[in-house]
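[job 4471] stage=fold_predict status=RUNNING
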Amino acid sequence: MHLKARWKAPHFPEPDTADRSIAKDLAQLVGELNLCSCEYKARQYDHEVKGLSAVKPYGGRCRDVAADATVTMIEPLSREGVVLSSAILPHFGDIDTYHMTAATLDLAIRRALAAGGDLSKIAVLDNFCWPDPVQSEKTPDGEYKLAQLVRANQALADYTMAYLCPCISGKDSMKNDSTRGGRKISIPPSLLFSVIAKCPDISHAVTFDVKNPGDFVYILGDTKPELGGSEYFNMLGFTGNSVPEVDASVNLALYKKVEKLVKQDLAASLAAPGPGGLGMALAKGAMGGRLGMKIDIDAIPASGKCGALEKIFSESAGRFLATVAPGKAETFEKALAGSTFAKIGTVTEKQELEFSGAETGVIGVGLDELLRNYKETLDQV
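[job 4471] inference complete, writing structure tokens
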């Protein structure tokens, strides 16, 4: 087929966030449909074939918070394991499917690395869920939809080569459209990445939940004012425009250091902020460990015009959230020399996420409220 694609970058209105409350908004955000707990449904499926799982789909002290990835032994009593992770960021595609594809791949890889995956032994499955991209009377915007598909495939090539991760399988589901009452409904252009990676030694696998009061909290990587397509903007009823962009060379330099950190057992917990940004990653770590954290918003490294909301809810790529025992902090920091990172807080026994900063003052949200909102969306409370 010889088809014509025509790309024109869209522009969307931006919300007024001047009077928003980080604490109240985070409490609401954890209950959004793309972020809330799916445990009730997930536990109706068999995740324990042969009893080989080392890191399970739901973890934490009460085993009730969704993990970023799972780790499974290759065979009974084996030290070698397989890491499985996935990512999908459909709201990014409303702005630019090139950056959607890049960010989705980056997130799936980060999630695998955070659990203990080997960066040099990683492979990807790409699953396209796409509307009809062929111009016709029924699809008058086909040239634009085809351009979205072309841009997604350009990013797929660019970033799988940059990260040296081959696509070993996948699925292309096109023409996902239907007509109801004379109105055509098209699925948003979406790309799901699943990652499989080798875990050389499952005893070094890491989970997302914070473990010990007194541990230091670190953010690795730079945060940018990239709220376009974010779950936060979606909660407010907006799309925005500043979609996250991926710098593969900067990220890879950090990822190689993270891989070594994991093998040295320097991180008590490790997570890859994605949908919901750093705020969601902090909430999940706290909910999982049933512990609180004190977070200094001003200490979060950021570039561009990043206010407190951007630092907490931006979904910038290339970042990790870690907690580290004080006795290991010096070694941890030396291992990250040359990359962007900062100590931003401490783990506490208090059942609260407490934020402080020049812009916000001291604000907090309790774990009870976070857990209730996280679970009750799908009636799991």
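[job 4471] summary: Residues 22-376 form a domain with the Phosphoribosyl-aminoimidazole Synthetase; Chain A, domain 2 fold (CATH 3.90.650.10).
[job 4471] exit 0
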